[in-house]
Amino acid sequence: IVGGLSAASRLTYDIGHDGTIWSTEVRFQARESWVLGVGADLLSSALPAGGDPTGLISRFRANDRFHAGVSYVF
Length: 74
Description:
Blueprint: E1 5-14, E2 19-29, E3 34-45, H1 56-59, E4 65-72
Antiparallel strand pairs: 1-2, 2-3, 3-4
């Protein structure tokens, strides 16, 4: 759909390590062959009592990611 706007969002929760990843993206089809998009991945986690990160999300919780892009289909 030309001029169409679409959005997607996903929440991942790690029960064992109390960590969360929220991923979201918005895309806009400007023309038939052009798509513009922006998004983010946000990480959050509670540190264990000792302060040493044990889970994957807690080790990388400061690595939030923001991205933008343009796609052309030919």
